[in-house]
């Protein structure tokens, strides 16, 4: 079972509740959140934009690859769009498997591949300027 979403806000309690499965002895949960610094400068906030139909399609494709490679009971991928403040969760990858090693491996694969291939762009706001972190269309 999988859940793939693009949201404005991520509720971590709902994420954990959804991932629970009676056959899963290991739930690996990666939470990417806004930090207060980058490149030696203070970050004020981040802004995320994305091409939602393509992002959802690509996230689903990655989820299917993970499900083929590891014995996944449940898989969740959520990315937020919009303005995010320091500490806000912006991406969550969750994998529930019978064993922790499979959950760790699948989760790492998913976040690494999401960062490489999903069309979501991040803009960093510093005290003196802003910059798109990755290529923006």
From TrEMBL:
Pathway: Cofactor biosynthesis; molybdopterin biosynthesis. Keywords: Molybdenum cofactor biosynthesis. The keyword Chloroplast does not apply. The keyword Lyase does not apply. It catalyses: 2 [molybdopterin-synthase sulfur-carrier protein]-C-terminal-Gly-aminoethanethioate + cyclic pyranopterin phosphate + H2O = molybdopterin + 2 [molybdopterin-synthase sulfur-carrier protein]-C-terminal Gly-Gly + 2 H(+). Its EC number is 2.8.1.12. CDD domains: MoaE. Gene3D superfamilies: Molybdopterin biosynthesis MoaE subunit (3.90.1170.40). InterPro entries: MoaE_sf, Mopterin_biosynth_MoaE. Heterotetramer of 2 MoaD subunits and 2 MoaE subunits. Also stable as homodimer. The enzyme changes between these two forms during catalysis. Belongs to the MoaE family. This is Molybdopterin synthase catalytic subunit.
